[in-house]
Amino acid sequence: MILSVIIISHNQKEQFRRCVESVLAQDLPFEHEIIVSDDASTDGTWELIKDYEAQYPGLVKAYQCNSSDCTPANNSQRSGWNRCNAYPHASGKYIAHVDADDFFLPGAAVYRKQIEALEHHPECSIAMSNVLWYNEGEPIETAYPWLSADLFVNEIMMTGSQFISQNLFIINQAMMMRRNADVDPVELYGKRYVDSVITFHHLQFGNVVFVDACDYVYVQSKQSITSNVAKTQDRMVLWCNGIYISQLVPAWRHDFYLADYHAIRDVVSLARAGYKLLEQSKRSLDGIDIFIYDAFNRPLTVFDRFRLFLTTTFLRAMHKFHWNKKIDTDILHFLLCK
Questions:
Q1: To the nearest 10°, the Cα dihedral for 126, 103, 6, 230?
Q2: Which of 7, 104, 133, 238 suits a disulfide with 108, CB 3.0-4.6 Å?
């Protein structure tokens, strides 16, 4: 088995039909499978998935879960749990993730190109394409590329450190990943196995190669967690990869603390100002027991305020004097997290 395409769904019957048809339409001249995991749909999505499984035996494989079992704080964690349900069933050398509300353009060749790139570059663990950002309900012609097309020519390769320093993160659905059978991400991350966590987990095991394709359509819904969180200052805390990924995937701690300086500084400033997270955002961080997150969830003590002052002072010194050694980021980690 060369490729496992993992599709997750939840009450998305018509979107799922559009999605799976766009995957089936691709010319994939190698052994592949479509693993579908449905999160307890009640609108007929599961029945439709089973119809596809019957229509394409051995190609479409259907599984169901109930993400309520993981006491999720938001839809992001529901999707993470759903992916965890699918992952153990995937047997491909390579893995690609798809959300049921997204789809591929007609004539898409991205998977073929990504596999060719990974076969040519065994030192790479990820092949990354561009994607189209599309607002649901608008004409497809209004969709636009996430990143500049220039980045995706000539099979540019980067190390993980270069990728982080240039802030080139894109949704994980743009990635095809070389499966590492020796490390179980489900066990490591559980419901947090989402988007950036998936990317930086797999990036530990090799470089990234950029593939000239822009076939995946990322559908942005007005009801999505991204849209809702973006309306509050919670986004500054929850979307700071310099803190979040550094804690979950420690291999990138040094790189993220250096590359994400301004975002980390802003998070610390927000904590010093006494900002408190919305209840749902608080719950999304349950189980990540670090000081800076805790500072958003309770009244600040005198010690808390002093520690946040020290963190701000140290961050400024790092920036001013170009402190970039591991001991410097170790100190920052102690101030932020321990």
A1: 80
A2: 104
Alpha-carbon gap, residue 292 to 335, rounded angstroms? 9
| pTM (two decimals) | 0.94
- Mean pLDDT (the chain) is 95
Q: What is the 3-state secondary structure (H, E, C) of 189-210?
A: HHHHCCHHHHHHHHHHHCEEEE
DSSP 127-184: EE--EEEEETTS-GGG-EESS-GGGGSTT-EE-HHHHHHTT----GGGEEEE--TTS-
CA dist., res. 7 & res. 249, Å (int): 24
Q: Give SS3 for 330.
A: helix
Tell how strand 216-220 and strand 144-145 pair up.
unpaired
Question: Distance between CA atoms of 281 and 275, rounded to whole angstroms?
Answer: 12
CB atoms within 10 A of CB 141: 7
Of the pLDDT bands very low, low, confident and very high (cuts 50, 70, 90), residue 224 is low
